[in-house]
Design brief:
Layout: E1 12-19, E2 28-36, E3 42-50, E4 59-67, H1 69-81, H2 84-91, E5 101-102
Antiparallel strand pairs: 1-2, 2-3, 3-4, 4-5
Helix pairs in contact: 1-2
Amino acid sequence: MLVCGACGDNWMKVVKSVELGPTAADDEYALQILSCVRCDARAIGRYTESRRGALGSESVHHFGYPVDRGAASALLQMLNGGDHEAIRAAFAPHMDEAQRFRVVYRDG
């Protein structure tokens, strides 16, 4: 389970995830819609993975950015559309680094 950035409970789930392919800095780049079952909070998820550098070194980052229900719904429609450049452009204004939280995985 994922820990919710709003209530701190481990009820956040990935509603939708779209792999947007590699970037200049990352081998994998995905954008997601996250939702907390307990407190109904919504967030954008940004998952990046890089396997550059020494053999066996891997860098994984998973961050969430709080958004309201309306923004989450509109961005979910974008994820369903499949236009990767439009998705990146639509998500970018919502990813405020000052409000981001690390997405943490916790069992049970």
